[in-house]
Amino acid sequence: MRVLVRLRIHSPSQHQMDSCRFQNIPTNPLAKELPAVDIFVTTADTVLEPPIMTVNTVLSAMAVDYPGHKLACYVSDDGCSPIILYSLIEAAKFGHLWIPFCKKYDVQVRAPFRYFSGDVVFPPSSDDDNKSSGFHLEWRRMKDEYEKVRQKIEEAANGTVQIECSGEYAAFSTNTNKSDHPSIIKVIWENKEKVPEGMPHLIYVSREKRPHCPHHYKAGAMNVLTRVSGVMTNAPFMLNVDCDMFVNNPKIVLHAMCSFLGLKPQECAFIQFPQAFYNQVKDDPFGTQSVTIGLEMYGRGMAGIQGPFYAGTGCFHRRKLIYGFSLDNQDVQGKEDDEKILKESFGNSMEFINSLTQSLKDDISPIQDVSSAAQVSSQVAHCVYEHGTAWGIKVGWGYGTLTEGVQTGLRIHRKGLKSISCIPDPPGFLGTTPTSGLSLRFFLRYGLSARAWWNNQRMARIHSATSILFGVLSFLFELLGISEVVFEVTKKDQSDNSSDHDQDTNHKDDTSNNNVGRFTFDESPMFIPVTTFLFVHLTALALSLFGQHDEVGLGEFLSSVWTVLCFWPFVRVLFGKGKYGIPSSIVLKSAGFALIFVQLYRMASVG
Ligand SMILES: O=c1ccn([C@@H]2O[C@H](COP(=O)(O)OP(=O)(O)O[C@H]3O[C@H](CO)[C@@H](O)[C@H](O)[C@H]3O)[C@@H](O)[C@H]2O)c(=O)[nH]1
Ligand SMILES: [Mn+2]
Fold first, then answer.
1. Helices 289-303 and 450-463: angle between axes, nearest 10 degrees
2. Is 81:46 a contact under the CB 8 Å cutoff?
3. Which of 152-166, 446-460, 508-522, 559-573 has the lowest mean pLDDT?
4. Is the peptide bond before 236 cis (omega within 30 degrees of 0)?
5. Span 265-316, pLDDT tens digits
6. Contacts of 238 (CB under 8 A, 6+ apart)
7. Between 187 and 497, whose confidence is greater?
8. Is 223's C-beta closer than 6 angstroms to any atom of ligand 1?
9. pLDDT tens-place string over residues 315-367
10. Cβ(44) – ligand 1 distance below 6 Å
11. Atom of ligand 1 nearest to the CA of 492
């Protein structure tokens, strides 16, 4: 396995993005030839994924340099929360100011929280004075407006302001809870007049969920988005991002379309932008940088073979390939109009089948107006819609795995098609995620500190004793039929590294800087193994240093020192308080386990 992984890096290649004929939107007359793109954003939990983060992702995606009437942004809310709908309605109001502002001043980072964080430099001040003073006024106004929206959304999210479940929100009232509710689809904004300068369509989607109906986590959500967008806008291309990944480069859609239109289709089945992170802490204490490096290294290696894997986010797809077809329709030749056959695979909605035949014929004319499709779209978002069809098997995002992205990408590669890794400067998307595992040499080569490498080594050990251990256990439990593997949504921390959200009220959390890069804990059993190992090794060290055990070998001693060093972040907070300390229940349980282990060992060695 390791050999196979290493082999990948020996075929480096990189896709060159040529300057494309679609420059200077919107003055370029060719702009009308640009294809439509449906953008999917997934969110699932308003606590783990703060709505303001989702809103920033949505705003950054809607504000890209692309004709507004050719974009539609679909937000899937698996948490079925009126707070998300409310946040998006507020976001749309702000978007009407924000998007023109971004385009007028060629703002580089169009996620407002980042733009106003203070880390991001202003656009050139070399503009003539009039313009730049106008700019400063507008900038101030925009910041104030964003601040208001942020506050409203945060108040709704933390419950200080309750959302009345009536009117627009009536659908949420009838005993809805996130795992038992009808489908709720709301067109928040429709660019009815189809104006290029206008704001893209914005649609809220919460698919139906019922306790007896498996929902297949993110893959299920993506398949619903695929169908809903099929009957609403049916764009030939789609982009999907997780809610914590904002668009960092406003030319991203243009870049992708230049590649799709400029290359042979079989050379460019999908376009993956590597994952990069914005909230890097000095020396990378959580080892996230390795994901970026890893993706870059392996990504380039894979590019030399058949192209990168589909990572699940930050990726543009061809709708047709997601439907499981090949580029030349060979697999459906002669059956394109056979309703019965299509319904067997794709389900019973006639409207959806019509949109699908349209995609098959590469006919990209928009079907109808978005709002009038709302009724039909709620039908394709029903939880029983997929029963007996090929969704999740041969069609759409694959089920039965927690890495639905990789699987879906491989299904496309299996057709012999290539994918492309697109690495623009600045990076296309920025998000938040932790992972691990590369050599010191690579770290130094990529300009990272030895400290960062050490943090990464350490994180790899901590991962092995926490998430990987639990992953293996839950997989075994599933194999034995004891329990089912579930997709647990990861908690996102939206640290914008900014000194404030409002510079005027000098109100800073003076401890916040000290806490950057610190581990947070809760009562999850996930922390027990590490803490137990730690106690065992601390006991071993104590016994060998002060104790009666003189037969301790040097190797054993060093191994214990190494383990303790790796778990040092845990040692420091063993008796800490609050979220930065290990809860005493975890400490007690672990101490108990360690004691049992040491006792058993002693009995065994005496015996
Ligand atoms: O039932 C669910 C569970 C998750 N999500 C969304 O899925 C995305 C990814 O979830 P997250 O908890 O952030 O998982 P990660 O492990 O961070 O995700 C990585 O790994 C996943 C599995 O391969 C990929 O799908 C992701 O794109 C990739 O970023 C988020 O937008 C969630 O809101 C849903 O929509 N419904
Ligand atoms: Mn994530």
1. 90
2. yes
3. 508-522
4. no
5. 999 999 999 878 776 666 666 666 655 666 666 667 777 788 888 999 999 9
6. 37, 38, 39, 40, 226, 229, 316, 317, 319, 322
7. 187
8. no
9. 999 999 999 998 887 777 676 678 888 999 999 999 999 999 988 887 766 65
10. yes
11. 13
Chain segment 112-121, per-residue pLDDT in tens? 999 998 765 5
C-beta 25 within 6 A of ligand 1: no
Nearest CA to ligand 1 atom 8: 242
Compute, in degrees rounded to 10, the torsion defined by CA atoms 145, 148, 150, 155.
Answer: -170
Return left, alpha or beta for 167; rule: phi > 0 is left, psi -120 to 50 is alpha, else beta.
left
Nearest CA to ligand 1 atom 1: 217
Asked whether residue 193 is marked as a ligand-binding residue, the answer is: no
49: Cβ below 6 Å to ligand 1? yes
pLDDT tens column, 21-38: 556 655 666 677 889 999
Q: Closest residue (by CA) to atom 26 of ligand 1?
A: 312
| Distance of alpha carbon 245 from alpha carbon 39, whole angstroms | 13
CB of 42 shorter than 6 A to ligand 1:
yes
pLDDT at 346: 96
User: In this predicted model, which residue has the larger pLDDT, 489 or 392?
Assistant: 392
Can you tell me which atom of ligand 1 is nearest the CA of 242?
31
The sign of the dihedral angle between the CA atoms of 506, 510, 514, 515 is negative
Look at residue 203 and give its three-state secondary structure: strand
Identify the pLDDT of residue 296: 65
CB of 489 within 6 A of ligand 1: the answer is: yes
Q: What's the CA-to-centroid distance between 192 and ligand 2, angstroms? A: 34
Burial class from Cβ neighbours inside 10 Å (0-12, 13-18, 19+) for residue 144 reads exposed
Tokens representing 334 are: 């002669």
Cα–Cα dist 509/154, whole Å: 18
217 C-beta closer than 6 A to ligand 1: yes
Is ligand 1 within 6 A of the CB of residue 78?
yes
Pocket lining: 377 vs ligand 1, CB cutoff 6 Å: no
pLDDT of residue 575: 81
Give yes or no for a contact between 356 and 323, defined as CB atoms under 8 angstroms apart.
yes
Is residue 225 within 8 A of residue 404, CB to CB? The reply is no
CA of residue 414 to ligand 2 center, whole Å: 26
339 is in an annotated binding site: no
| pLDDT confidence of residue 121 | 58
Quick one: which atom of ligand 1 is closest to the CA of 433? 17
Across 131-135, 475-479, 561-565, least confident range = 131-135
Of 237-246, 327-336, 402-411, 443-452, which range is least confident?
443-452
Strand-pairing partners, residue 189, are: 202
Question: Whose alpha carbon is nearest atom 33 of ligand 1?
Answer: 43
Helices (H), strands (E): how many in the chain? Answer: 21, 10
Domains of the chain, residue spans:
45-275+311-430, 518-606
Q: Does the beta carbon of 370 sit less than 6 angstroms from any atom of ligand 1?
A: no
Nearest ligand to the CA of 218 is 1
pLDDT for 435 equals 37
Choose one of 75, 216, 240, 242 to mutate for the ligand 1 pocket test, by most ligand atoms within 8 angstroms of C-beta: 242
Predicted pLDDT at 280: 63
Is 284 within any annotated ligand binding site? no
